[in-house]
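Protein 1 of 2
SEQ + STRUCT:
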Amino acid sequence: MSTVKQYPISDFRPLTEAHLEQVWQWRNQPDIRRNMHKDAPISWHEHLTWFDNLQGDLSRRFFLFYQNRRPIGVLNFSQLNQQTLEWGCYLGEDNVWPGSGLLLEIAALDYAASQSGVHRLYAEVLSFNLSVLKMHRLFGYLPMEDKPGGTRGNIEYVVNTFHYPLANWPENRSAVLHKLPKQIGAAAQYIQFS
């Protein structure tokens, strides 16, 4: 008897006040803070101010990443200019479906490519975040000029910048999925934005 493979439903929903505390806890995890531009702990007051500012800013979109109805991370976008979205993400939970980081990358490109008038997706990665740098290269992001960074734990770093021409994504999507493990391509069919 054959078993039917189950793939997670990846649902991205706008952040609401109900999940503010959970996102605050995620943002303060050392592994997440380490890869952010500012790695200092975030106070509850700072987090509430951030959320209040987010509510009134139409140029920013912040989604909670649900996997099979369980919140596991975030995906966010900022409108840099009329034609360019910047994006960022993180997984707040450890015990997630293998490949969830790749699903975030696919979801970011799918979402950005679906936005009217948006032609580029822009990303910044701290140069010591090797796994994300590798992932961006695999997906075909084009490198741009590095920005000055700083020092973290006695390690000097720069900010690597990338852009993705979104007109290329519909054609590149299947080629990228073909390079990835088959289960990622299958799970990518279950990405949705609510």
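Protein 2 of 2
SEQ + STRUCT:
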Amino acid sequence: MDNIRIIYRILSVLEASMDIEAFDERSISPETLGITWARLLSLLRMLFQAGLIEGISVDTDAAGNFLVSKGRPRITLKGLEYLNENSLMQRAMRMAKGIKDYVPGI
């Protein structure tokens, strides 16, 4: 699974969790996502730094070890906009692929 799909999946889980009070951390665990712990922390750090999520912080110490603040990750307005734009782009790509499959020579 590529990083963009993993990011989309993380944001989708956080968007869906807006309707529940207790967040299940297993929903974005490395095992659930099929990635390493280090990759998950790197992606969460990028999402936080880009302003797509809030409620947690992932930093590194002088030795390069990850430091994670415990909290409840939440999607931000910017994260919701990313999901919306990404889903519209994916739909457009699927439509374009469908047209290409039906119209020879494109």
